[in-house]
Amino acid sequence: MFYEPREGHGLPHNPFNAIVTPRPIGWISTRGADGQDNLAPYSFFNAVAYVPPQVMFASTSAKPDRDGTKDSVANIRETGVFCVNVVEFAMRDAMNATSGPWPREVDEFEHAALPREECRVIEAARVAGAPAALECRMTQIVQLAGAANFLVIGEVVGIHMRDDCLVNGMFDITRFRPLARCGYRDYAAVNEVFSLSRPGE
């Protein structure tokens, strides 16, 4: 099968997200200028550079109370900071509870009964007990083609790692089974890993 996206795929559901998988989930916590905390998952998320460490996420829809975008991007525009919380399998239901299009005054930490802790370098909350969290200062917000598509890039200025996830000096993801987004309503958890040496190593 071949199709051009502009002409439609003719399938019951859009296959694009099922093709580009699995995708790590950036559980983005922000705080508005008014002090209101927000927490929302984004599956268009990844690390993009080592030095300095940088990450990106993309927001692709809008809420009527946020001037063409969502709470996360609106808060980052106001404060210039955000935190990426890593989602473990055990937190899947809480993550899903924070994904709804709630009004801006809803605190997703409270809605999902998630404990929070203050970040160390930036003014924002993070998910207490998450396997890892990346405190970030926004460097760019890029408007992409299409309505409400915004790419947010941030420099990682603080890194939290849960002690039980460090094994022999390495961050062991099998200790917490990171959650990944697949197509449709599907998710996956990383249960095992394998290593490959690069040519010449």
Topology:
Blueprint: H1 16-19, E1 23-24, E2 26-31, E3 37-42, E4 45-49, E5 54-59, H2 71-79, E6 81-86, H3 92-97, H4 108-111, E7 116-118, E8 125-127, E9 132-143, E10 150-161, E11 166-167, E12 170-171, E13 179-181, E14 187-189
Antiparallel strand pairs: 1-13, 2-3, 2-6, 4-5, 5-10, 6-9, 7-8, 9-10, 11-12, 13-14
CATH top level label = Mainly Beta
For this structure, the CATH topology is Pnp Oxidase, Chain A
Mean pLDDT equals 96
In which order are the strands of the major sheet placed? 3-2-6-9-10-5-4
User: Which range does the strand content fall in?
Assistant: 35-45%
Helix content: 10-25%
Q: Give a short account of the largest sheet.
A: 7 strands, antiparallel
Alpha carbon gyration radius: 18 Å
Ends: how far apart?
Answer: 40 Å
Shape: globular
Q: Can you tell me the residue ranges where pLDDT is under 50 for at least 5 consecutive residues?
A: none
How many helices does DSSP assign? Answer: 4
Q: What is the domain total for the residues? A: 1
Q: For the record, what is the CATH homologous superfamily label?
A: Electron Transport, Fmn-binding Protein, Chain A
- Quantity of strands, as a count: 14
CATH-defined architecture: Roll
Main structural class: mainly beta
GO molecular function, one term: FMN binding
Protein name: Flavin reductase family protein
Pfam family, one: Flavin_Reduct
Domain Flavin reductase like: 18-173
Q: What report would you give on this structure?
A:
InterPro entries: Flavin_Rdtase-like_dom (IPR002563), Split_barrel_FMN-bd (IPR012349). One of its GO terms (molecular function) is oxidoreductase activity, acting on the CH-NH group of donors, NAD or NADP as acceptor. There is one protein chain. 11% of the residues lie in helices and 35% in strands. The mean pLDDT is 96. The strands form four sheets. It has a seven-stranded antiparallel beta sheet with strand order 3-2-6-9-10-5-4, covered by helices on one side. Strands 1-13-14 form a three-stranded antiparallel beta sheet, with no helix packed on it. The protein starts with 15 loop residues before the first helix and ends in a 12-residue tail after the last strand. It is built from four helices and 14 strands. It has one domain: Pnp Oxidase, Chain A, CATH 2.30.110. The protein is mainly beta.
